[in-house]
Design goal:
Blueprint (H helix, E strand, L loop, with lengths): L5 H19 L55 E6 L13 E7 L8 E2 L5 E7 L9 E7 L7 E2 H6 L7 H8 L3 H10 L3
Antiparallel strand pairs: 1-2, 2-5, 3-6, 4-5
Helix pairs in contact: 3-4
InterPro entries: Cupin_1 (IPR006045), Germin (IPR001929), Germin_Mn-BS (IPR019780), RmlC-like_jellyroll (IPR014710), RmlC_Cupin_sf (IPR011051)
Keywords: Apoplast, Disulfide bond, Manganese, Metal-binding, Secreted, Signal
Family: Belongs to the germin family.
Length: about 190
Amino acid sequence: MEYSNSKPRSLLILFATVFLIISSCRADPDPLQDFCVANLQATDITVDGFPCKPTSSVVSDDFFFSGLSAPGNTNNMFGSNITQANVANFPGLNTLGLSMNRVDLVPGGVNPLHSHPRATELGFILQGEFNVGTGNAMLITAFDSQLPGVVLAPFTLFGSTPAIPNDVLTKTFQVDQSVINLLKSKFGN
């Protein structure tokens, strides 16, 4: 079938391309099986996660994680703590494509700018007024990945090895080199 006008065809190709890109990015693949407790000792990670433990080795503790029930230590430069519940410490999540975090914040605390390279994040504030109230805050975050990964902007920009050259950072942030040196001193460079 030929189109007399190229605009609808171009629009259709654009929508199809965008759909394919969005649907194939930033998530774990669909589970290939229903039950696969992670063998965390294995070194051969597969496209669907860790290899499965033998069924005879699976125990009830593989499906239990109590780490989200208690506040974490917020005595650090950010005034926050992230407790992760992912396949690395909760083997029953293997192949399910989900994980959660508990985020604890003191007043004025922050969860540093970050991204999750393998997941989308959704957060629920369960206590407090995020970080502007007079008391602590607590959030639960959910991910569409069993191991979402994290890239922390402050450490990536100012504490990486090898270091990002100062002239790149001064030009990017439009600040003096003394500001960049101060920031690097706080993050190990």
